[in-house]
Batch of 3 targets.
Target 1
Amino acid sequence: MSEEQLDRIAGVVLLVGAALSFAIMLAGFVLQGSAPLPGSFLAQPPDAVLAGVRRLQPLAIVNLGILVLIATPVARVIIAIAGFALQRRWRFVGVSSFVFLVLMVSILIASRPG
């Protein structure tokens, strides 16, 4: 895989992730319509978001869009790791793996209750 191909794939992933996130959040806002918004916009854990999406709860759908938006750069880093490994550029595999680790630790810390 060439550097150009890797850049193209990463660009498509970022574009599709952002567009999908926007579409999901827009659907949540459309479902909300003119009804009053809930008093609290606190983030929900992923299992609560998925349960709310199954019940077509607008706030849960908006939160799903936010989760997709958060997952987009994570997917980009995973693609970078795979691409650099295919190119046998081990230093970049290491750096990208470190970035992935930092992202995962940050998500775990942020998702802790309290």
Target 2
Amino acid sequence: MDFISHGLWPVAVFPNARWKWKAALFGILPDVGMFGPLMYLFAQDGIRQIKWIIPFIDKTGLTYLTPSIPDVWMASYFAFHSLVVWLFVVGLFVLIKKRMYWPLIGWGMHILFDMFLHAGRYATQIFFPLSDWSVSSSLGWQDKRVLLLNWIVLLILFGLFALRRLQKKSA
């Protein structure tokens, strides 16, 4: 799923939660955790890093450029996209704070979406580091149908929230 959608879905699912924007930040955390350091490298030494860019053709025939992430970075990707790591972090918060830290739900949602929408090298290994098992998805997040459905549903939900807010103000 695209970066922005990962941040919007926790807000769409929990519109009345006081912590929804924190959940949005945790929703984008797995990608920031992975691509943040990579973007830093590009900014520091962009010309030499251009070899990491490779053409990618998705199942719909759409061609675009994507970073060819070095293997050493993939462990970070798998860790940030692992339910095992997420549950460990949730467990730490519960152990330390003696209660659930609900914004972490955004991170869990990110993993669940990506689990069904990533394939190949970027397939979400939800049991990392215990296993390299992943769902073999034939439909990627970059598929036009997935993108369209995702954004239509988000627009409808946020449109309904705005309508409800307007109705409350006028009442």
Target 3
Amino acid sequence: MKISIIKEIKDDVNPVSRETLKRVIKTALAAEQAGANSEVSLLITGQEKIHELNRIYLGEDRPTDVLSFPMLPPDEKTAGFVTPPDGIKHLGEIIISLPQAASQAAEHHHSTEREITILTIHGVLHLLGYDHDEPEEEVKMKAREVEILSLIENNQANTNQIKI
């Protein structure tokens, strides 16, 4: 499994380690049985960059919390993964705004680390074909987010690694 983490925000400002982010992605992929030969990229950035990307790619002239850019065809989730010649399933990229995550964490009365974990799970699910445009899709995706977050929190509680 290949996971690339790029932080445009200084580590002293970013409360989440690369190891934690990789663990969240690996857990989400494993929960979805996405396989060990997957590749995901995650970018932690600021409001200006995510605002620009949101405007360019989604036509929304405002910042957002997370963007996902899947590389799989829309029906890949149900049809089964087609492995490219290099043997790696290139799932796509997730981009998270650290300032937006911090703001949302304060609103929800939990840590920024927990909010980034939730946003990362959300992004992975989008890469795997989940969506929330329709109410029934939203219910399904939200339920899966909660299940995966619970897996991560239980693993962390058992290993006493970090508290989110």
